[in-house]
Design a protein that fits this description.
Layout lengths: L1 H19 L9 E6 L1 H7 L1 E8 L4 E10 L1 H6 E19 L3 E7 L1 E9 L5 E3 L1 E14 L3 E13 L3 E2 L4 E11 L4 E11 L1 H22 L1
Length: 210
């Protein structure tokens, strides 16, 4: 009897979480701006993760400054954004039922150059996965999730100035989160010099061991 009560309680809590997950949020659009210049050009790449509450419209601007030296060192940029859309439904005792929708109704990535021209990312939808959990009569739930990717091709960096990489969209009722990766690609000669430097360091280290 204790086991049945525990299962019923777990089911009720699970379904209640499905019905009420997420944090209420204002419908007022949110805009944030942050610089990624140092991490991007010092390390060659930068990763950012963001989570928003439900029914939230937002724009996250990530800026980086390309000066003359950086323009000589880097020739292109790539950005990839990943997120998951999930839909869940569940019931306990076939009475207490609820649904949950998390992710984004739309999500866009745009790179704007110093001249004002812009390039938008392309969305790729991955396979849909469905999981089902059932305890006869007591509890059942089903969740369908889809992995999505928004990516830009390698975009040539042709001018000095400030670039803005914008992520904008609206979350579903139970909120959503995304992860963004940005990579700066060095000029061929820069990469060759770096490889040469590593080779020299390795040669010196071998000689010292001898």
């Amino acid at each position: 009897m204790k086991l049945i009560n525990a299962l019923v309680l777990a089911g009720l809590l699970s379904v209640n979480g499905v019905a009420h997950a997420g944090t209420p949020s204002s419908s007022t659009p949110t805009t944030t701006t942050s610089s990624i210049s140092q991490d991007l050009f010092d390390d060659g790449s930068v990763s950012v993760s963001k989570t928003y509450a439900g029914d939230k419209t937002f724009t996250d601007n990530y800026t980086f400054n390309l000066n003359a030296q950086r323009l000589q060192e880097f020739n292109s940029l790539s950005a990839t954004l990943n997120y998951t859309n999930s839909n869940s439904v569940g019931c306990a005792l076939l009475i207490f039922c609820g649904t949950s929708n998390s992710g984004f109704s739309n999500l866009n990535v745009t790179l704007t150059s110093p001249s004002g021209s812009s390039t938008s990312g392309t969305t790729t939808t991955g396979p849909t996965n469905t999981s089902v959990f059932v305890i006869p009569i007591l509890v059942w739930s089903a969740t369908t999730s889809t992995q999505n990717t928004v990516s830009t091709d390698w975009i040539s960096l042709l001018a000095t100035g400030t670039y803005t990489l914008s992520v904008s969209g609206t979350t579903l009722k139970n909120g959503g989160g995304y992860s963004l990766g940005v990579t700066a690609v060095p000029e061929p000669q820069t990469a060759a010099l770096a490889a040469l430097g590593l080779g020299l360091i390795g040669m010196i280290a071998r000689r010292r061991r001898v």
